[in-house]
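Continuing from yesterday's entry. The apo prediction looked reasonable, so today I'm repeating it with adenosine-5'-triphosphate included to see how the binding region is handled. Same sequence as before; SMILES copied from the compound registry.
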Amino acid sequence: MSEASAQSEQPMVSMKRLNKWYGDFHVLRDIDLEVAKGERIVVCGPSGSGKSTLIRCINHLEEHQQGEITVNGITMTQDIKRIEQIRRNVGMVFQHFNLFPHLTVLENCCLSQVWVQKKPRRDAEKSAMEYLERVRIANQAHKYPGQLSGGQQQRVAIARALCMRPEVMLFDEPTSALDPEMIKEVLDVMIELAQEGMTMLCVTHEMGFARTVADRVIFMDEGQIVEEAPPETLFNDPQSPRTQEFLSQILGH
Amino acid sequence: MAATQVRSEMLAPRKAPDRRTGLVGWLRANLFSSPLNSLVTLALAALLVRLIWPFLEWALFNANFLGESREACSSGGACWVYISARFETIIYGFYPPELRWRVNIVFVLLALVIAWLAIPRMPFKKWGALCALIPFPIAAFLLLHGGYFGITTVPTRDWGGLMLTITIALLAMVGSLPLGIMLALGRRSTMPFVRGVCVLFIEFWRGVPLITVLFMASVMLPLFTPSGFDLDKLLRALIGIMLFWSAYMAEAVRSGLQAIPSGQSEAASALGLGYWHRMILVVLPQALKLVIPGIVNTFIVLFMDTSLVLIIGLFDFLAVIRSGLNDPEWLGYAIEGYVFAALVYWIFCSSMSRYSQYIERRLHTGH
Ligand SMILES: Nc1ncnc2c1ncn2[C@@H]1O[C@H](COP(=O)(O)OP(=O)(O)OP(=O)(O)O)[C@@H](O)[C@H]1O
Ligand SMILES: [Mg+2]
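Holo prediction written out below.
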């Protein structure tokens, strides 16, 4: 297939001169970012620097005002069909899990397969169970989210996102609402996912995770990308004074 | 200095202590836990007996139940003959006596449909809902009103009594809830035009009393509609009642929508679900569950307020009971009439309320 080789050259996610304002507040300023297929990117930066806003623009949970976003070859427009097409290619995991509390774990995982991908329920359940198996929570499939621990809920949320077979996974501080003993079980799942070659954009302050899986770490401040480097370089030899200050704050206590 | 302690053996789990204490234990804990409480319990019990006993004597022990006319009431207690002698009118109004079997069939069908939908164990819920939405209303209309397939027409002005009350209440509930949900969604829409229309609609209907609505529907509407285009009076009243209550329903539902964190809708968006899927599959099930008390409260008020149709000359349950009060043959039995009316309204409303509590418990998924 000649198209396949063309596709592997084209970036999975690309943002060109992306700008966004909340009212008069300029949250994202001239963001240029390309994520290749299979690349793992960690985004970090101080609170309020626009990290969440940045990755939420990728699946249009936030609307940008200027610039261009392309995901898997589909360029974002105002057209809701186009947006939904992009969303089918992008899985997202939230800080507060956002599982649907009125549905069981299995139903949470089947929802988009049945209603978006129009799969028969049996096939949907089968593939949901496969993903729940992978995040090691298949034995809880018939429980409601409210009956699970935070770490378990977050793993379900990852399985739910994977059920759509997305090309890119976005993580917005997936472990920062978790108790320390649960962080590892979620990070382990994410590391496995990274090793299987999933394209990932992950907002996190887990530096261990960044060192293990990230191809690139992006440091953001005041709505712009301040520094961008492989994890070893960025953590051991940060160039920008802002990065140095930030790292000394989160590493040096 | 704190002494160090190390447990050498872990404790095995034990059974929770038995909390069943029996009737005596319950009485002791709840009613006679201290001398003062015992005193209060006894005093209140005495008061209760003093109040309830005379009522029971009047309503049950000294009452007359069966008979044809007031002569049957001789024992000095309540004269339930007032109800029993006019029972058929109370149920059917002026519906032609030889056709009342048609109403009975509708009652039976209604009971079956409600049982099918309301009892969780009943199978084929989807088919039940389908039956309730299409064949049942058609059958009910053909039986109650007739006019097609050679079925004798019974015009709505002959309808009355409990049958009319239930018809109005049921149609108003079934109509106002979906309309209210649409209005609530519309009021939260990001489209300014849709939102504006919904806000205007809701605020208009919440701003006028139901009596005015009914009066306008029955008296003023015919003045403006072209002659020859003659909507049935009951239908006009029904539409008015439905629109009126949909505004209250909308506000009840909206309070539920507002309580659902935006993360729910965002997560559904991120999964690629479109607006209607997000609402129907994710947001509304949660929001409606939260506002069951509010919806049922509205249902209950709606049910009781159906009695206002009296002022436009429809003889509902309460109106039929009251009409007897002016009957020279039955003068002086107002108390029996109102007590009976209260009892019937109470049975309907408290069953709705109990059922809603049951459903709320059933839908609880532990969060
Ligand atoms: N809906 C909104 N309306 C107005 N301002 C907003 C809105 N959402 C976010 N902001 C502002 O935009 C800025 C960036 O927010 P964002 O959530 O992207 O930060 P973040 O880097 O993810 O921070 P954190 O680490 O605290 O999650 C913040 O200053 C925030 O106050
Ligand atoms: Mg954030």
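Comparison notes:
- The mean pLDDT of chain B is 86.
- Chain B touches chain A at residues 261, 263-264, 266-274, 277, 281-282, 285-286, 289, 363, 365-367 (CB under 8 Å).
Will overlay with the apo model tomorrow.
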